[in-house]
Amino acid sequence: MIPSDPGSSGPEGHSARRGGQSALPGGAFPGPGGPAPGPPVPRPENGPSAAAAPRPGVFLDRDGTLNLDDGYTWRWEDFRWLPGAIEALRVLQDEGLFVAIVTNQAGVARGLYGERDIAALHERMGADLASRGLALPPLYYCPHHPDFTGPCGCRKPEPGMLVKAAREHSLDLSRSFMVGDKTSEVLAGLTAGGAAVLVRTGYGAGSGPPPGGALEAPDVLGAAKLIASLVKARGPAGPP
Ligand SMILES: [Mg+2]
Ligand SMILES: [Zn+2]
Question: Judging by beta carbons within 10 Å of its beta carbon (0-12, 13-18, 19+), is residue 207 exposed, middle or buried?
């Protein structure tokens, strides 16, 4: 079944911002004017400032990286965090790194579930993370599939979701990281201009070496520790 108007939201993917525990009721997506995560950043009118300078971001794939990928995951009842996923989010949060979840959700284009289901699952993830003292990363997802909705700029390996997140959250893509279990996810990070880490969970368990000189880690916790150490080594100003 093909949804009635699958491409209506434009070519750059959809995003839901959630500020930690400020989940909205009813599974509805907050619009562009929705709550922004974190405290307001002071923006002096003149001159560059460290506070306003673009920062690195960490983009995490969802299915196969953070949670068990056993097909299309859209029900909380079927959702299982992978070992190390919670701890990985803690490592990145403790390091003060901006994190976003970036996920292809072609099940929408295929008519298997709707965008409200994606929002509802994200909300349940947020409640679970909040109970562990963790913030819910904002979600970017691509609801398209070329066979059903034509080409788009957001389905990984296209970098559209990363570019959108960078624009919305003042991220420096050249200092950012994409973590995923598929080659297509690694390529999205590299095409966006940053680094990428292939994890050996999900599809990554049986695939060859990561493309394009990308890094690799056993799982998302290994990736998080690797990224934290690289960001520390680079220092706050980034690479020379
Ligand atoms: Mg994946
Ligand atoms: Zn798309």
Answer: middle
Q: Which residues does 72 contact at the CB level (< 8 Å), separation at least 6? A: 107, 112, 113
**Residue ranges per domain, the chain?**
14-23+53-234
Predicted pLDDT of residue 45: 46
Cα 67 to averaged position of ligand 1 atoms, centre (Å): 9
Distance 43 CA to ligand 1 centre (A): 36
Distance 9 CA to ligand 2 centre (A): 10
User: How far apart (Å, rounded) are the C-alpha atoms in residues 237 and 170?
Assistant: 15
Return all residues near 104 (Cβ < 8 A) that are at least 6 apart: 141, 142, 155, 156, 184
pTM: 0.80
Q: Could you tell me the two tokens for 78? A: 């079927």
Mean pLDDT computed over 97-110 = 98
Please choose, from the candidates 80, 144, 81, 138, the residue with its C-alpha nearest in 3D space to the C-alpha of residue 115: 144
Residue 157 CA to ligand 2 centre (angstroms): 10
Superfamily holding 14-23+53-234: HAD superfamily/HAD-like (3.40.50.1000)
User: What mean pLDDT is reported for the chain?
Assistant: 84
209 - beta bridge partners? none
